[in-house]
Amino acid sequence: MAWRLRAGRLAAGAGAGVVSASYANCHFATPVPPPNVAAKELQRKDSMRAGHMLFAIPKKGRLHERIVEMLKGSGFDYNRPERLDIAHCKDLPVSLVFLPAADIATYVAEGNVDLGITGEDIIAESGAESGAACNVIMKLGLGKCRLSVQAPQGDVQDVRQLAGKRIVTSFPELAKKFFAQHESGKPTNVKVISGSVEAACGLGLADGIVDLVETGTTMRAAGLEEVAVLMDTQAVLISNPHTAHPELVETVRRRLAGYLTAQRFVMCTYNVHRDNLMAATQITPGKRSPSVMNLETDGWCAVSALVEKGKVASVMDALERIGATDILTTGLLSSRMGD
To answer: What b-and-e string marks burial along 204-233, b requiring 16 or more CB atoms within 10 Å of the CB?
Structure first.
């Protein structure tokens, strides 16, 4: 409940004073409150809607835009007023709460919000620190990277050489746990910084770092190389184990799963003679199985099947070789596959 009051303060706008709960209880009924106080209080009351499930979204960073695009494509219709960190969906009793990605796992695990999207690395770090757990509902395939140990190029041949030395990271719990298994007496000195971790070695602050690697461009530009991988990570949908909205959680999961399927596949339709149908369905097995309908022309049938986007051209070539005709591909906006 304390967090929900803090969320109301967030919604009231950055840098502005917020009317306290006690003030609201005692004075909101004043016949003619000052205009600025009334506006702020109405905004606070509207910031949290009774019965709404709270869904935490990263408020900025490399994943923010992609997640917002995914939500829009999944049918989450909302309007986020400028400078507010809460937005209410129009067709679902869901309120989106925009939070730092590093905090989302903790808020979900402790029940302050019901649902969230964040990285597997953050969940692992948060769980190692607090012991609080959340349910991982589905992997989203966004922000794939790896959490790795990095050191100046040519300096370290084996990660055990860094055990007991100076390590800088924004993942202290995971780093300590990893190096503990390689130590032979002297504990590893793990220091925490939140930004520009890759500069630590060059500045003489560390002998190695533990940081995320996506393409490796930043790592190589800093003169570092990967020594060991702690874990592979990507964005995931998580929920509180004791949420009061299990049906809404499932609705959200189905919407996101439908959007992700639509992004991965196209619908391929074509006509083929029944003599070649078996060969055709081996080329286009579909996600579960192809749909086959008889045509008025004797011996011919129409086939529809999902095909992965990256394989469309080669699939169409193969269908042509077996005599299929009228081959068309159609993009998908969303889907429901019963998954």
So the answer is: eebbbbbbbbeeeeebeebebbbbbebeeb
Q: Which domain covers residue 308, as residue numbers?
A: 261-330
For the chain, 339 residues long, give each residue's pLDDT as a single digit of tens.
444 434 443 444 433 333 333 333 333 333 444 444 444 443 444 555 678 999 999 998 878 999 999 999 999 999 888 888 999 999 999 999 999 999 999 999 999 999 999 999 999 998 877 777 899 999 999 999 999 999 999 999 999 999 999 999 999 999 999 999 998 888 999 999 887 899 999 999 999 999 999 999 999 999 999 999 999 999 999 999 999 999 999 999 999 999 999 999 999 999 999 999 999 999 999 988 999 999 998 899 999 999 999 999 999 999 999 999 999 999 999 898 876
Task: Tell whether 337 is covered by a domain.
Answer: no
Give the separation between CA 147 and CA 170, rounded to whole angstroms.
11
Say how far apart CA 286 and CA 246 lie, in whole Å: 31
Residues 6+ apart with CB under 8 A from 270: 280, 302, 303, 319, 324, 325, 326, 327, 328
Distance, in Å, from the CA atom of 18 to the CA atom of 32, rounded to the nearest integer, reads: 18
Instruction: State which H helix or E strand residue 146 sits in.
Output: strand 145-152
Measured CA to CA, the distance from residue 176 to residue 173 in angstroms comes to 5
Which whole-number Å values give the CA distances from 61 to 43, 64, 65, in the listed order?
27, 6, 8
Same domain, 84 and 208: no
If asked whether residues 203 and 319 sit together in one domain, one would say no
Q: Are 329 and 311 in contact (CB under 8 A)?
A: no
Does 119 share its domain with 244? yes
